Amino acid sequence: MRLIIAGGGTGGHLFPGIALATALQQRIPATQVLFIGTSRLLDQQALAGLGFELAALDCGGVKGLNLAAKLRSLLQLPGAVAEALRILRRFGPDLVFGVGGYVTGPVLFAAWLLRIPIGIHEQNSVPGMANKWAGKLADRICISLPCIPPFPPARTVQTGNPVRHEILAAAGQKRLVAATPTVLVLGGSQGAHRVNTLMMAAMEQLVAEHVSVRLIHQTGMADQELVAQCYQRLGIEAEVVPFIRDMAGVYARADLVVSRAGATTLAELAVMGLPTLLIPYPYAADNHQVTNGEYYVKGGGCLVLEESGLSGVILARTLSEHLHNPEELHTMAASMKTMAMPDATDRIVDECLRLAARA
After folding, report:
1. CA neighbours within 13 Å on the CB side: how many for 190?
2. Could you tell me the CATH superfamily of domain 168-338?
3. What sign for the dihedral angle of Cα 58, 11, 101, 169?
4. Per CATH, the architecture of 2-163+342-357 is what?
5. Exposed, middle or buried, 157 (CB in 10 Å: 0-12/13-18/19+)?
6. Domain ranges for the chain
7. pLDDT at 7
8. Distance between CA 280 and CA 294 in Å, rounded?
9. Same fold across 2-163+342-357 and 168-338
10. Distance of alpha carbon 185 from alpha carbon 309, whole angstroms
11. What letter would DSSP give residue 341?
12. What number of helices (H) and strands (E) belong to the chain?
């Protein structure tokens, strides 16, 4: 089996692809996988040490850009398709699978031209521009959540969102209960400045109220020093890092999570059964993070705090209410577990093998 996974630019795109690649190699050990992604450092960091080859495609997105930037991206497309054709012919894949991001467009179009079977996975409840277009070419469309608008039903299957094997393993282990609760703060793979500032303000308030808490805070590169100095000044026991590679390890230590509402993170939190306060990114395309979050709120595992009306005082009060109510945390954790789809990766592998067999 030879598989190309196209996508990148964010952890939300890459991590499901990594989970799929790992599971397929476990199912068929001779499987060879090539990732076609972007030249961004994040893509290299996410794939570092995993043994997968990465090819970078020179292209850009168009959504949310000014006219000049859109024209530059459009002018890059013919060259990107030509390069994708060259890569596909050299690698000779049995299947090309898109996981989202603008880089998928040229790769999937090249696969369509070469009559190679195409699968895609949409992580979010509102499909991105790349996947809306890719859905017209794909032989099979795997979705994590019910999508608005929906893809063609005949080619669509709800598989859930792939979760990395180390997180699935951690989810099956017994959690240790510490005397001081641990709050995990996640701002997405690149951090979130507004989440960082809200947490610093909230911790000022909680320290003044003598609320004891440990923190693991993923800040992104820009705010690491600022946040670390704030917590040190407040005397808070905190691990402040720009990027977390061992997500399974930090999930296993968390009692409550403060997070953006990316679909991959939500799938991981559900598998781990972690109660979560969600602060959706307000500028996400089509406001999809709010829609993602609402799906889990309906299940009882999360609470959504809209960024526009949120302050450090409100966040501190919400944190304190939850940290002082272990029964509610336990109920939320159980609700998150019921919404998990831990077999999502196996479902997608099954679909990939069916598609490859038709080639």
Report:
1. 9
2. Glycogen Phosphorylase B; (3.40.50.2000)
3. positive
4. 3-Layer(aba) Sandwich (3.40)
5. middle
6. 2-163+342-357, 168-338
7. 83
8. 10
9. yes
10. 19
11. -
12. 14, 13
Token readout for 295 is 């799906």
Do you find a cis peptide bond into 149, omega within 30 degrees of 0? yes
Segment holding 344, helix H or strand E? helix 344-357
What are the 10-residue block averages of pLDDT along the chain, 359 residues in total? 84 80 92 85 70 79 58 70 94 94 89 96 86 90 92 95 89 81 88 93 96 95 95 96 92 96 93 97 88 94 95 97 94 96 95 87
Q: Helices 312-323 & 193-208, crossing angle to 10 degrees?
A: 60
Question: What is the edge-to-edge ordering of all strands in the sheet holding 182-186?
Answer: 238-241, 214-218, 182-186, 256-259, 276-278, 302-304
**156 beta partners:** 141
Render the burial of 230-250: b for 16+ CB within 10 Å, e for the rest: bbeeeebebbbbebbeebbeb
- Read off the tokens for 207: 């320290």
